[in-house]
Each structure stands twice: as structure tokens, then as C-alpha cells.
Design brief:
single chain; Helix Hairpins; Cytochrome Bc1 Complex, Chain D, domain 2; two-stranded antiparallel sheet; 10 helices; 1% strand
Length: 275
């Protein structure tokens, strides 16, 4: 690390060079950066305005009443009941996306989503204040070079893993039902098997886990041993259609008929942990 005298000498030299040959970063370069930032933001706002005011609510009117210069305002209506759509983040968040697959809810998810990125940002922020040497040759900065290479490689690997990670669709989860029935011991219970298929095909494993299948989100519990909690059929029949009545404001309502509710109740009551 450079001494205080070396730093002052180099800074004095820098000021002399600026005075003799050029202009300082502030305010000249900062002014140019500010102007270019305003230009970029203005272009984005302009394009968004053109898109909005040349398109209508109905995408079928493009080319007639609406010109749709930059595309329709809407394409297909959203389907909140779909169970086959797999949400994916933008590519530059793939590394964080894959960290969520490594650090599971609820024990370590904070470490993966907040802890590790925050520590890396703090290190990047403090590095210029810690290492104040004037040396710029990479061959004489092995620690910095190795650290930068490791960060790039790790983020690249996590980005690749996140881009190629495959999520289980509802049809794939349904294929696990026979294994569930065998491990839980309700293979001979037709009601429970039917309820397991409803559970697997309705997107329940998007928040719940069951015998290692699914992902735990929003604090949703594992249901592999739900039948050990002593809850009866009436409880599940009333709870599943409207969990908010029981104080659960996170879980959505499900529109199942009475037969489906009975089958789901039979499935959950028969789920007492693998035998």
C-alpha cells in the first residue's frame, strides 16, 4: 500500500498534469455524462409514448384504427389460473435466480438473496479505499486479478446454470404421484390417489414441497406429513377454498368442487410421512 507521502506526491503530479495538458473530471466529464444520461432517458420516454399513443387496448385493431408503430399494447390476456407457465427472470438476474435454487427457504434464502450480493457490493465499494497503490500493471496485482477472475467465472457459471435450469411443469409433477402413493402407503386408497393428482396438477408444488418435489416459497410448509397433525376432512374442505378465513392471507383461493375437495382432503389426511 502506498504511503501518505507517495500518495500526496502522485496527487500533486496529477493536478499539475491536468493544469498543463487537460481538464479535470469534475465538472467537465461529469457534465457530459449527465447530458448523455438525459438524452438516453428522453429517448426511452419518447419511444414509450409513441408505443402507448399509437396502440389501443384491442391488439386486433393494429393496422386499422391504431397504427401500432412499436407493437400492440397488449397481446394475449393474462391467465391467472394457468399451471403450466414457468416464470423466469431477465438474463442478467439468472445468477441470483440460481442462488435461490441453492439456498432454500426459509433457513438460508436471506443469505443467497441479500447476504452474498450485499457483501460483494461492500467489498467492491471499499476496494478503492483499501488498495490505493498507483501500480496499474496486471502482473503486479495478482490478488486483484485472481479475485476479479473468480468473480467473473462464478457469476458466469451461475448465469449459465440459471439459464439452463429446468422447472418441473404440472405434467411432470403428476408423474411423481405413483411414487408418492407407494412411499406414503395410500396406493390402495382411490380417493387419496385422485387427490394427489389434483394436488400435482393444480400448481400446489409452486409453493409447497411434497416428498422432495416442488419448491417452498412464501413460507409455505412441506405437506409430506400433513396427516399427522390430526386435522379432519371438514377442516380441509373449508380451508382450501378460502384460506384467508383461517388467517392465511398468502395462499390464494382455489375453485374446486365438492368431490375434488373431498379427494384432496383424503390425500392430505393419508400423507403421514414416508413409510
Amino acid at each position: 500500500m502506498a504511503s501518505t507521502d507517495d500518495w500526496r506526491r502522485q496527487f500533486t503530479k496529477y493536478k499539475a498534469d491536468v493544469k498543463a495538458r487537460g481538464k479535470p473530471f469534475y465538472p467537465y466529464a461529469m457534465f457530459h455524462d449527465t447530458v448523455m444520461s438525459l438524452v438516453v432517458v428522453s429517448v426511452i420516454i419518447g419511444l414509450a409514448s409513441v408505443w402507448y399513443f399509437t396502440s389501443g387496448v384491442d391488439p386486433n385493431k393494429c393496422g386499422s384504427g391504431d397504427s401500432c408503430l412499436l407493437g400492440p399494447r397488449y397481446s394475449a390476456p393474462a391467465d391467472p389460473a394457468t399451471t403450466n407457465f414457468v416464470p423466469r427472470p431477465d438474463w442478467y438476474f439468472y445468477f441470483l435466480f440460481y442462488l435461490l435454487r441453492i439456498f432454500k427457504w426459509p433457513n438460508s434464502v436471506i443469505l443467497g438473496t441479500v447476504g452474498i450480493p450485499t457483501v460483494l457490493l461492500i467489498i467492491a465499494f471499499l476496494l478503492p479505499f483499501i488498495d490505493r497503490r498507483m501500480e496499474r500493471r496486471l502482473t503486479r496485482r495478482p490478488v486483484a486479478v485472481i479475485g476479479a477472475v473468480l468473480v467473473v467465472l462464478s457469476m458466469g457459471e451461475l448465469t449459465y446454470k440459471g439459464a439452463t435450469a429446468k422447472e418441473a411443469l404440472a405434467s411432470e409433477v403428476v408423474q411423481a404421484v405413483p411414487t408418492w402413493a407407494q412411499r406414503q402407503g395410500f396406493a390402495g386408497n382411490a380417493q387419496a390417489v385422485a387427490g394427489a393428482k389434483i394436488f400435482a396438477s393444480s400448481g400446489c408444488t409452486a409453493c409447497h414441497t411434497y416428498l422432495g418435489t416442488g419448491s417452498s416459497n412464501q413460507g409455505a410448509p412441506d405437506l409430506s406429513a400433513e396427516g399427522k397433525k390430526g386435522r379432519n376432512k371438514q377442516f380441509f374442505v373449508q380451508y382450501i377454498p378460502d384460506p384467508a378465513k383461517f388467517g392465511n392471507n398468502v395462499m390464494p383461493k382455489f375453485d374446486f368442487d365438492n368431490q375434488q375437495l373431498s379427494q384432496l382432503a383424503a390425500f392430505l389426511m393419508a400423507s403421514k410421512g414416508p413409510k
